Amino acid sequence: MVNFDPHEYPYPSKRNVVYGQKGMVATSQPLAAEAGIEIMKKGGNAVDAAIATAAALTVLEPTSNGIGSDAFALVWIKGKLHGLNASGYSPENMTIDAVKAKGYEAVPQFGMTPVTVPGAPAAWAELADKFGNLPLTESLKPAISYAEDGYPVSPTLGAFWKEAAEKFKTTFEGEEFEAWFTTFAPDEKAPEAGSVWKSPDHAATLKEIAETNAESFYRGHLAEKISRHFQKHGGFLSKQDLADYSPEWVDPIKVNYRGYDVWEIPPNGQGLIALMGLNTLKKDDFSHKEAVETYHRQIEAMKLAYSDGLAHITEETHMKHTVEELLSDDFASQRREIIGEEALDPSPAEPPKGGTVYLATADAEGNMVSFIQSNFMGFGSGIVVPETGIAMQNRGFTFSLDESHVNSLQPRKKTFHTIIPGFLSRGSEPVGPFGVMGGYMQPQGHMQVIMSTIDFHLNPQAALDAPRWQWISGRKILVDPSFPNYIAEALSRKGHQIERSLTHGGFGRGQIIWRNPDSGVLAGGTEPRTDGHVAVW
């Protein structure tokens, strides 16, 4: 168990750390967390609860994910950690020349072009088949019920939904976007917080996914609907692209940080960036959290890790440098040595040769899941397949059209991916799942909550409540409204270009569950920057 003081609560919050024993689900939407616990009480394990929560979130938080999302999972079960990469590849006919022939100099953010094969439905089916106690017909019942009967929109969700709807009125032009407005803004506006929203099409699609174990989505009736819509509007995604897809089980990667193993999914995910940042700092001594030197070295290490990650990470088979090289002690020492007293403008180095939803679950048997799925940049591509409720992601947006770039677009290639689940263990014992969703904030959030936990002994809720910063580019650092002013001023004197955000949005939304190996008691925290909730049993 992480050594934290359960009574230590240095940051203002309306929440205390939550304890449970038989089961726990932490996520960004209260009804979704309760859906996971409901399935656990019906005989499901932590895996079934994760599936139920993830499916429910496609209904309960459509501003961040959907049935057309990608997903990743870290699953601790029977004494071993397993990794699932359910990100999709680019369509067979999506080439650099084909995209440029449409008049683009870069892959666009919206529309048919940036859509890659969605992996989330396949992830649910794969997890249920390999580790679940229940079939999808049971685990998806809460999601189907919320889509059929409706639910009251929560405050943070309502704000994001309204912002997106206003933007899309002027952004989305063309028949291919009509289904987005029919589905998510039927009265030409987003539903207000407290109003009831329902989606019968969404419910029908989830039923079909459940009854066919996701086969319909990739090789059946739903696949036909998806491919017809893309064919009609000149998209690249085809029926064959869907039919050939399956998620991939992978070996998680880790670094040892002060006696704890911090685990991430290997590339194409950006979890490697969080590990490189921690690896750079593991020989430093941090005596106080709220100290200028602590923040300065954290920021500098993350800037270097991110510049290296953006230069080297893509689908692992296409990388020029291995994960082992990027996580080597020699490379970490090389990067550590250039961190000085002043802020630097980062640039990538060559290593020595050698808008997302997150949830965490745990059950009484010791099984634990760290799960994340996302449409990317809010609602994703803006493409909704008519009469299905399927909102498609836009992960192809991160591909480069420069053939020499490591993340250059190629057919059937998985792009650099921002969504990353995290897991913490010590020796042979699991500590638990953690994650901080939010685009390029994610590895930065991972590093900050792990250091708050291990270096400064904060409990899960306090670690999530703590002030956050985000590296933007160069020496520009954005800090949240709770960030101490005296530290911000001191960092400015070191050359950091500090900008204070007026809102808590953009600093990630995290969840943590830690397990006491002696008592089996679970300790959970949820993000104060969203409608977060920890459901316990």
From TrEMBL:
SUPFAM superfamilies: N-terminal nucleophile aminohydrolases (Ntn hydrolases)
Transmembrane segments annotated in the record for this chain: none
Single GO MF annotation: transferase activity
Superkingdom to which the source organism belongs: Bacteria
Keyword annotations: Transferase
A UniProt-annotated Pfam family: G_glu_transpept
Coiled coil stretches, renumbered: none
InterPro entries: GGT-like_enzyme (IPR052896), GGT_ssub_C (IPR043137), Ntn_hydrolases_N (IPR029055)
The name this protein goes by in its record: Gamma-glutamyltransferase
Source organism: Alkalicoccus saliphilus
Lineage: Bacteria, Bacillati, Bacillota, Bacilli, Bacillales
